[in-house]
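batch_manifest entry 22 of 60
target: Universal stress protein
source organism: Phytoactinopolyspora halotolerans
requested by: lab member K.T.
priority: normal
notes from requester: please return tokens only, no post-processing; we will run our own comparison against the previous entry in this batch. if the run fails, retry once and flag.
--- input ---
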Amino acid sequence: MGQIVVGIDGSQDSENALRWAVNEARRYGDTLVILHAVHTPVVAVPFSSTVMLPPTAELEAYGNDLLKAAVTQIEDVLPRPDIRTELVVQPPVLALLAAAEKSRMIVVGHRGLGSLGAAFLGSVSMRLAARSACPTVVVRADHDVDGSGPVLVGVDGSEHSDAAVRFALSEAQRRSTAVRLLHAYRARPGSSPMEDVDTPADMPAGRRAPDREAAEHHVDAILRRHLDAIPEGLRVTADVTPLDPAEALIADSSGAALTVVGSRGRGALRGLLLGSVSQRVLHAAHSPTVVVHDGSADPDDDA
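--- output ---
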């Protein structure tokens, strides 16, 4: 048994993140850790280093009340022994990154209450996704946390993409749903992307656009690398598109139960913690979104 950590702050996004995390803890038989970070402003001492103010009694009371309300909301669907709460006096990103070291995954809302409401800022999800030691799940208030569609995963052949595929396969098996791989390729200059979009999938190989044919061979190679990891009976499909990768994933995420991306793809600059495609998908996907790093904990490994 491992643990899944969900960060909450009282916002609608974090409330939906809690619902998603409850469902996930039930699938894995994990302990659900509900974490709230009490963070007070940094005060600059004249002619000295910055210091952190201790949390006020009101902030601590709010945090404890929030955690109690969260437990009350979910204890009918998750056994009380499988729920743990943590009130942490630390900036939220640092608190969640520390929790990620010993967790199967971290779940947060897309945006929090903001500085006026304390705790989680909108940038927390992005910074966490860039640096977390385990997969990071980002949920918005309007996401369907009970979706039954396929698990959509963006692939490009990079190590981070391969890690995303492994995560997607495990998730799909537990959800009894399919996996859909989506690969975006760059059409040659002078060619029309729409010509490739309109190409029937069953068109003979010799008559398909060369760029599309090369992309399909690339996806086939990716699939072959993961054949041993595909559970028996799990349906896996793959599609290619000449469209912008982020736009294609965002558009197709509307029918997905979950959208999975690697933290960086082949096009990311060396040293960049979170690629531009991952950032855009994280902000605009129509389903809960998971960012996976190469080397992140395998979801089937107990943390």
